[in-house]
Amino acid sequence: MSPHPLPCLTALGLLHIHHRQKRRKMEAFQVCCSINNGSYEDCCLKYVRRVKKTAVRMVTSYRRQETDGGCNIHAIVFTMKRGRLFCADPREKWVNELMLKVETKKSKKHMKGLKKRGG
């Protein structure tokens, strides 16, 4: 018989965006730490509805969150330049457009690196 996982602990993370000396908070990421067979998992518990253009420009990468394991919702977890995270609904049009932008940026950087090395 497998051990029952401990109740899920949640913590709300806030993204702080400075814009013309005004601090704006945007609900960004909720972390679900569940202990399942001795491992911890970070899970999105809900999505942001929209993101400011300044935040979109700061996105450097993303990963997919699947519902297997300890996570209950499908999500795209975007990572920003300073390591901040936000979760988005993969069914939203703007989310897919942002994923494409991230892939395009990565591809351009990779091609630049190849040109510099002469390959």
TrEMBL record:
It comes from the Eukaryota. The keyword Transferase does not apply. Residues 40-102 form the Chemokine interleukin-8-like domain. Keywords: Cytokine. GO terms for molecular function: chemokine activity. One of its GO terms (biological process) is lymphoid lineage cell migration into thymus. It holds the Pfam family IL8. SMART domains: SCY. One of its GO terms (cellular component) is extracellular space. This is Chemokine (C-C motif) ligand 25a. It comes from Oncorhynchus kisutch (Coho salmon). The lineage of its organism: Eukaryota, Metazoa, Chordata, Craniata, Vertebrata.
